[in-house]
Amino acid sequence: MLTDLREAYRSVTHRIAEAAERKGRRPQDVIMLAVTKTASPDQIRYLVDQGQVDFAESRVQHLSQRVAQLNEFLARKRTLGGASTNETSSQATDVRWHMIGHLQRNKVKAVVPLVKLIHSVDSLRLTEELQAHGMRYETNIEVLLQVNTSGEANKYGIASPAALHMAEQIDTMTFLKLRGVMCMAPYTDNPEDSRPVFSRAADLFHEIKTSDFVDDQFNILSMGMTNDFEVAIEQGANVVRIGRALFGENE
Ligand SMILES: *Cc1c(COP(=O)(O)O)cnc(C)c1O
Fold first, then answer.
1. Strand ranges (DSSP E) for 89-214?
2. Residue nearest (by alpha carbon) to ligand 1 atom 7
């Protein structure tokens, strides 16, 4: 099982690098999130040992479980490493979790302390809840705006015409930091179907980036999954979210 993962990890990393280079970009400028929905704890630990830093979950309950499991592993690893400050132990502390699935307002409190970035901010009411949480706990919360540039097919995401206004609203919320845009294309067997969806998301990203509502930390364009990550990178993604290509289909 870990042999499969080793091959898959190599292959995905390689394909990301090739897609980046096709567009004259550096491979290291594209960050891969390992989406752990179908991963076993062993597989997650294996990737941590390989130096994988970014992990993502789409469900709050899974996220809490994963973070707890991994923290236990990392703590044990540090204890075993003793007082030494070698590469491995410092690397291990650098794991970052991302929330990429739809977030209900009553789950904000559970999620915020666990993650580096919330990719799925898709309503004004959710931003208000996040801002209230940030204020209450005096903590800054980094978010992406999830946009729906595919029309009807997606259940979640802000419609394109409303995105800039949303950025303006978030700019007034002192505990929220808007870091970029997230987009999910409808599932398809043909990755080329995703290209216009990603192209429109990239346009929106640039429109917001050049507005007065964000600063130069607005620099993340999160799009592309197992089926379409190469197309996403070609259209400008600098964060891709990969599950099945690493861990297979099994739940
Ligand atoms: C599950 C999921 C992914 C990963 O999808 P794969 O097709 O398994 O690569 C990426 N983004 C979101 C929002 C997801 O829910």
1. 96-99, 117-121, 141-148, 158-159, 176-183
2. 226
Strand partners, 240: 32
Q: 232 pairs with which residues across the strands?
A: none
Query: Could you tell which of 37, 120, 121, 181 is best to mutate to test the pocket of ligand 1, judged by most ligand atoms within 8 Å of the CB?
Result: 37
Smallest CA separation from ligand 1 atom 6, residue: 243
Question: Quick check: pTM over 0.85?
Answer: yes
Which among 146, 182, 225 is the best mutation to test ligand 1's pocket, defined by most ligand atoms within 8 Å of the CB? 225
How many angstroms separate the CA atoms of 15 and 229, rounded? 9
CA distance 221 to 39: 25
Ligand 1 proximal residues by C-beta, below 6 Å:
35, 37, 58, 100-101, 184, 225-227, 241-245
**What DSSP string runs through 62-86?**
HHHHHHHHHHHHHHHHHHHHTT---
- 3-class secondary-structure state, position 34: strand
Render each residue's pLDDT in the chain as its tens digit; 251 residues. 788 999 999 999 999 999 999 999 999 999 999 999 999 999 999 999 999 999 999 999 999 999 999 999 898 888 877 555 544 444 446 899 999 999 999 999 999 999 999 999 999 999 999 999 999 999 999 999 999 999 876 678 999 999 999 999 999 999 999 999 999 999 889 999 999 999 999 999 999 999 999 999 999 999 999 999 999 999 999 999 999 999 998 65
Q: List the beta bridge partners of residue 55.
A: 34, 97
